[in-house]
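Hi R.,

Here's the chain you asked about this morning:
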Amino acid sequence: MSPSDGARTQRSRPKARRAGGGHVTLRDVAAQAGVTSMTVSRALREPDAVSSRVREKVATAVRDLGYLPNRFAGGLAARRSRLVTVIVSGISASVYADALRGADEVLRPLGYEVLISQLTETPEQEERAVAALLGWQPEGVILSGIERTDATRRMLHAAGVPVVEALELTDTPIDSNVGLDHRSAGIAMGRHLADRGYRRIAFYGARLDSDFRAFRRLEGLRAGLAECGLVPVRVVCSEAPSTPETGARFLRELLDDAAAPDAVFLSNDTIAMGALFEAQRLGVAVPERIAIAGFGGSDITAAINPPLTTIRFARREMGRRAALTLLDRIERRAPPGQRVDVGFELLARGTT
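And here is the predicted structure, written out as tokens:
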């Protein structure tokens, strides 16, 4: 091979082979895609502003070159970060994973990056997460629940960014609110169990000191039973995690009680299914010996035998509505104070 042949070979190598993806520039991406740098910038910041053909060419060039956009610098230039922060308590509960997916489906196609913080089990932990994440200058914030410290509220008000509190309803949101009424859900379950003829009804909740929504369902259960002249015969607020093993252990404890209840409402589907599976393992008839109900409406609750009585809400749609509400506030299409009730449905099934 001649030196000139080697030079031609070197020049013909695709830029994708370039070492150090962090040094690839916007101009390199533009040259690879055959468009202008301005078009690349627009495709990355506002995908809907360019054609699908251009989006694909830019995406291919970005992927081949290993281009890493400087989002902070770009945000300063455009005065927009295209970043939304989602701070979630209890992300281990699969019931809320669908809500996150719904929000992501709305935000990402519009060019937003979604930054999720999940290690927030208490309002104090959330406060620290908010303080850290606001430094990234998000255009909006989605928070789970309505319980938070005064310091968190002050920080969010001072930041001046739109905020959506999701998963639960309140009459006094920081900005806007999308969720369901958990107390009403508890009332509905109390009425259901009483209407089915159960008179000795227990409640089991895991970590109610931090699961404020489950605690409000307990308050609702008490109110619903009171309407029927009943009170819960046993209320257990455990420090145990929400796992099937926790539900199994609780069921064994119930059955060992001389005054065992004839029905139990558990704070979520995970521990409710654990209780059901343990009853089956022990040969305890459900619902004849004891009725079991959960909360969340997970898809698997309809597939097990017998199907689990539970309370379902539109988890994915709630995430979508939270994201859409936040976008309306970011784009100033709606004033603060929006309140969206996604509702719930009690699914009376074989376990009650």
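One quick note: The longest strand covers residues 163-168.

Cheers,
M.
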